[in-house]
């Protein structure tokens, strides 16, 4: 496809505009005034970044919009993104005391209202600290990397972020569907960080454009915030056929304004039932697919997608096939997928991780006609990169000291999805943001004394 | 169904709700619409010498997203020719003979002026006359309205002038812009008033615009003080009604005015001695249709209480309204939190901790859940916690069993006096 054609398609693709409208000022005021302004509010405790929620809401009510946005972004450097992607029902809104009397305050929507105001009014909310002469390198400009960079810059560190992709923001920029999180939101967050003097070097891949050893050598500390990678291979026949997509890759393309025309009028099967699967499915719907099914080897109960994501998919008309697993993909004469052989599953007693174990029901194989298959069965790790730093890891999950977030190399810290997994932490944007903050504080803790001596 | 009609100073009204003299009663068209909607009476927009008005005229105090907690105006009396008003009063009374029309009047404090206008309105069939001695803005600068109402002697004299010519009941409307409204109420009694009505609006400046720095409302960038009314003034009005009602020298009916917006407000004013009520701001906020709930709610309330007639509740709480020195010093109330209902917003805790008597603790139960508990020994029973609590029923104020007989400050002082007398 020519660039011109790509641009034509990408301009104003309505299906990919943000799905949920933002509050108008009256809605925001009404809801803000409903907030009880609790003392020692449980919503604050429920927020991984500890945003002073009653305070930012009170400021919306009083018309102090800059103060409101500052309260949010102070605690969470990616607060505008989190306003859209946080599982608020499970966090702040779930903890709202009004759940016990009327209904919870829509904290996410109010947070979005306040941060949208800051974006629209081109506010710069923070200032860099006085330079202290220490240089920190951060690999990855996702939520964890940006968050660490913002805090370090405020503390006076000179920060350089190395980002492999063409634009900063990581998962928020490339990995979350545009109709939930438009790219400009996370780019604004990155810009806020850059305005504190942080240098973000894009298109700089570790191992190709820059090397781990050089970073460790040339900086006072390095933070590894590289997140996770593509969807792994399922390991079935036909996975390399045309028409088989990686959900993460598919989302990234739509974020870049590339809308695959192949989906129009087609039958799509999405494999997996996490949030990425939902993204793959809803993206397929918006690309014009005629029918989209999510196939999951367990049941509704075990699916890892958030409730609101599940609801969102259902509203988009996505169908769900529980206890169904693909066995092989069948090609047409042109090497394009045309059918999928599936097998029915049943659940047996729990595995070690507490989830019931799915087993094939013998002889239950059947064929499903499909035109496109989207794989969303999890994410692989940036193994090569982790190993290039020589860090200890557990299947790609970098080992860190719980308190200091220092890896097996004392000069290297790690935060975000790169340390998530195997039962440790939560793969949420907001958790990554918090870890970024904690990493920055940990670094400062380490250098504070020597800095004081220098003065 | 309870009878909610009233007989106020000899004026019979199908219900206690009259529209106060104000913009809603400016024209026959409006008053007819009000009667059609079910209002019992209307006090016509004040008549007098024709005046000129300014724009803009109104301002409001909004609070935490609620519109019109208070309302302010700088509008003067009727700006329409007297003859037009008289003609419309005549027509309206003809169309609605069972509804009450009161003429509100304001002229210079001269005997012949009052005689003249009283006769004119009587001739078109009004049921009563209300003397506007309370309007605090504009007219007061010309020696009328509250300029009269702030001088007991002028109140007495003006009431007397009106009474000399009046064949219908005369209601003297009082201004709250005075140290003690009982002084002017007594003056009205001395002047022969058949009733008093209170309160007129309170001197006010409702706000300053943060961008233009103009007063609100403004007239070409300038402002002047207006009259404040609406829900925010209700407690001030209720106190003044109660204070007059419990004063033996003020033994004439009181028409209650000031922030009355609901049937509950009405019940409160009537319990505190009002023989009927007048409403303006609530109607200006929502239209005449609010009368449906005002009458229905009142009637249902009386039915629920097993009361046949609204008249039976007039003044029923007056004897409970007394001087502070008569309150029982030995009475003890404490707050008790119902943890089943409490939603743990902790507002009571922080209010008590920061601004009252530090007696609400946040404790943790055996399951690790926080709960709130009042240390009753330290609780002074101030009500603050129950006031800030957002959930009905979460905090009860409990009367403790008295350990000593009731004793007021007055009792105490006289007891001390007796002891001293006995000693000497």
Describe the global form of chain A.
Answer: globular
**How many extended strands of chain B?**
20
Number of domains of chain B: 2
Overall residue-averaged pLDDT value of chain B: 97
Order the strands across the largest sheet of chain B as they lie in space: 3-4-7-8-9-10-15-16
Strand content of chain B: 15-25%
Q: How large a portion of the residues of chain A is in β-strands, by DSSP E?
A: 15-25%
CATH 2nd-level architecture of the largest domain in chain B: Alpha-Beta Barrel
Secondary-structure-based class of chain A equals: alpha/beta
Please give the count of helices of chain A. 17
Widest beta sheet: strand line-up of chain A = 3-2-1-4-16
- Main sheet makeup of chain B: 8 strands, parallel, barrel
Low-pLDDT sequence parts of chain A = none
Distance between the termini of chain B: 64 Å
CATH topology descriptor of the largest domain in chain B: TIM Barrel
């Amino acid at each position: 496809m020519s660039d011109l054609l790509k641009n034509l398609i990408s301009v104003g693709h309505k299906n990919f505009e943000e799905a949920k409208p933002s509050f108008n000022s009256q809605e925001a005021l009404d809801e803000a005034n409903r907030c009880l302004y609790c003392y020692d509010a449980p919503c604050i405790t429920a927020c991984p970044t500890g945003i002073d929620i009653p305070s930012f809401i009170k400021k919306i009510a009083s018309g102090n919009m800059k103060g409101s946005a500052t309260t949010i972004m102070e605690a969470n450097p990616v607060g505008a993104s989190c306003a859209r992607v946080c599982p608020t029902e499970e966090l702040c809104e779930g903890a709202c005391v009004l759940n016990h009397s009327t209904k919870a305050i829509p904290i996410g929507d109010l947070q979005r209202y306040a941060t949208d105001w800051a974006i629209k009014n081109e506010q710069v909310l923070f200032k860099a600290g006085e330079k202290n002469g220490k240089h920190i390198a951060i690999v990855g400009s996702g939520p964890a990397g940006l968050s660490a960079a913002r805090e370090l810059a405020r503390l006076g560190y000179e920060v350089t972020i190395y980002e492999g992709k063409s634009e900063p923001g990581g998962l928020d920029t490339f990995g979350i569907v545009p109709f939930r999180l438009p790219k400009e939101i996370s780019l604004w967050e990155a810009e806020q960080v850059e305005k504190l003097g942080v240098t973000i070097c894009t298109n700089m891949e570790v191992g190709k454009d820059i090397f781990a050893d050089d970073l460790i050598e040339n900086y006072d500390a390095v933070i590894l915030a590289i997140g996770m990678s593509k969807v792994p291979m399922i390991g079935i026949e036909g996975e390399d056929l045309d028409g088989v997509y990686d959900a993460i890759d598919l989302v990234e393309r739509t974020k870049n304004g590339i809308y695959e025309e192949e989906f129009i009028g087609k039958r799509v099967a999405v494999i997996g039932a996490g949030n990425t699967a939902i993204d793959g499915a809803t993206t397929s719907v918006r690309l014009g697919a005629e029918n989209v099914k999510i196939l999951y080897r367990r049941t509704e109960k075990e699916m890892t997608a958030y409730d609101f994501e599940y609801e969102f998919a259902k509203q988009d008309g996505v169908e769900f096939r529980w206890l169904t697993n693909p066995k092989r993909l069948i090609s047409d004469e042109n090497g394009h997928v045309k059918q999928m052989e599936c097998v029915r599953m049943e659940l047996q007693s729990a595995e070690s991780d507490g989830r019931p174990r799915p087993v094939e029901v013998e002889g239950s194989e059947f064929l499903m006609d499909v035109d496109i298959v989207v794989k969303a069965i999890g994410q692989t790790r940036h193994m090569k990169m982790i190993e290039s730093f020589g860090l200890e890891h557990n299947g790609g999950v970098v080992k860190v000291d719980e308190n200091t977030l220092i890896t097996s190399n004392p000069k290297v810290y790690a935060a975000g999805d790169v340390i998530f997994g195997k039962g440790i932490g939560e793969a949420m944007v907001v958790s990554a943001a918090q870890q970024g903050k904690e990493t920055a504080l940990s670094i400062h803790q380490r250098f504070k004394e020597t800095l004081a001596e220098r003065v | 169904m309870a009878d909610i009609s009233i007989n106020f100073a000899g004026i019979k009204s199908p219900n206690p709700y009259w529209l106060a003299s104000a913009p809603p009663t400016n024209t026959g068209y409006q008053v007819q619409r009000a009667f059609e909607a079910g209002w019992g009476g209307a006090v016509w927009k004040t008549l007098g010498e024709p005046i000129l008005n300014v724009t803009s005229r109104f301002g409001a105090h909004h609070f935490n997203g609620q519109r019109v907690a208070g309302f302010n105006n700088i509008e003067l009396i009727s700006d329409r020719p007297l003859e037009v008003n008289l003609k419309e009063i005549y027509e309206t009374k003809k169309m609605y003979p069972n509804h009450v029309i009161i003429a509100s009047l304001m002229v210079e404090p001269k005997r012949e002026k009052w005689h003249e206008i009283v006769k004119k309105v009587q001739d078109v069939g009004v049921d009563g006359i209300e003397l506007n001695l309370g309007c605090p803005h504009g007219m007061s600068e010309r020696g009328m309205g509250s300029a009269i109402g702030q001088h007991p002697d002028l109140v007495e004299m003006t009431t007397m002038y009106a009474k000399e010519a009046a064949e219908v009941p005369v209601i003297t409307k009082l201004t709250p812009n005075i140290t003690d409204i009982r002084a002017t109420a007594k003056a009205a009694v001395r002047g022969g008033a058949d009733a008093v009505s209170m309160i007129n609006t309170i001197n006010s400046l409702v706000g300053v615009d943060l961008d233009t720095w103009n007063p609100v409302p403004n007239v070409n960038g300038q402002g002047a003080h207006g009259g404040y009314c609406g829900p925010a003034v209700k407690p001030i009005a209720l106190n003044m009604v109660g204070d007059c009602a419990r004063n033996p020298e003020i033994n004439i009916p009181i028409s209650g005015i000031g922030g009355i917006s609901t049937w509950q407000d009405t019940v409160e004013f009537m319990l505190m001695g009002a023989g009927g009520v007048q409403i303006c701001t609530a109607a200006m906020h929502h239209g005449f249709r609010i009368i449906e709930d005002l009458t229905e709610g009142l009637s249902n309330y009386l039915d629920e209480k097993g009361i046949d007639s609204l008249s039976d509740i007039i003044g029923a709480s007056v004897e409970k309204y007394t001087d502070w020195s008569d309150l029982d010093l030995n009475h003890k109330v404490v707050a008790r939190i119902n943890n089943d209902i409490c939603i743990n917003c902790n507002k009571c805790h922080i209010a008590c901790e920061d601004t009252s008597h530090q007696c609400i603790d946040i404790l943790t139960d055996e399951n690790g859940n926080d709960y709130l508990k009042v240390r009753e020994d330290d609780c002074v029973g101030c009500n603050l916690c129950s006031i800030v609590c957002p959930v009905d029923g979460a905090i009860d104020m409990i009367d403790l069993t008295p350990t000593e007989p009731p004793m007021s400050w007055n009792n105490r002082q006289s007891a001390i006096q007796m002891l001293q007398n006995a000693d000497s």
